[in-house]
Amino acid sequence: LFERSHCGIKPTQAGRVFCEEIIPVLEQYEKALRLAGQAHFAAELSDIRIGSYYYLMSFIAPACHYCHDRNTAIDFNFISCRLCDTLDYLKNGKIDIGICVDLLEALPPCFYAVPVALANNLCKIPQGHPLFEKNQISLHDLDHQTILLPDRQIKNVSRIQECIMQSGLDIQIQYFETPDQAESIGLAKKIVTFISPPFVPSNYYHHA
């Protein structure tokens, strides 16, 4: 199937045919493992541990209560974990399901992901900011200003960074690690914060 030469190892004609034919077999194998795991999960677990960042619990918990009312044999436990820890918690068996926001890294073959919701970007505009009363803002509105972005590897942050770079506008980026830190910095420095819903309402901010 393979031949070695001074240039390295390469497949023979038979090897190329083998590689092409084996791909769907491997995909079917991975699918079989995933379905078997799901069947085991459904049959064995009556206590499902859901891991998520705490500010997402506001919409996760009602959905789980809705499911519990229709299947009282299943109980849900909620475990707070940061986005960057979600995969580690899954691998180590600390949680059964992880709720993530816009993952940047590819999932390992042993995990399966489904989208559950789509949401627009939001800007938190602090009181006293020139854009405070606007319901919609564009990147041009933020020219010569500083904005706050989450300091984490998610696709949404990368997309915003790319849009800013391509715009050619003078927009400085400062990063935050936690929502509480963003709240403090945004209010103290009157900086617009980019967030993804759901969000915690505040009397000190306007959302656009």
Structural summary, described in words:
The protein has 208 residues and is of the alpha/beta class. Helices cover 37% and strands 22% of the residues. The strands form 3 sheets. Strands 8-7-9-6-10 form a 5-stranded mixed β-sheet. It has a 3-stranded parallel β-sheet with strand order 4-3-5.
Give the secondary structure arrangement, pairings included.
Blueprint: E1 2-5, E2 8-11, H1 13-44, E3 47-52, H2 57-70, E4 75-80, H3 86-91, E5 97-98, E6 122-126, E7 145-150, H4 155-167, E8 171-176, H5 179-189, E9 192-195, E10 205-207
Keywords summarizing the entry:
10 strands, 5-stranded mixed sheet, alpha/beta, 3-stranded parallel sheet, 208 residues
Question: How is this structure best summarized?
Answer:
With 208 residues, the chain is of the alpha/beta class. Helices cover 37% and strands 22% of the residues. The chain is flat, with a radius of gyration of 23 Å.
Biggest sheet strand order reads 8-7-9-6-10
Order of helices and strands: EEHEHEHEEEHEHEE
Instruction: Give helix % range.
Output: 25-40%
* C-alpha end-to-end distance: 60 Å
- Sheet with most strands: 5 strands, mixed
Radius of gyration: 23 Å
- Principal-axes geometry comes out as flat
Structural class computed from helices and strand pairing: alpha/beta
Question: Number of helix segments?
Answer: 5
Number of DSSP-assigned strands: 10
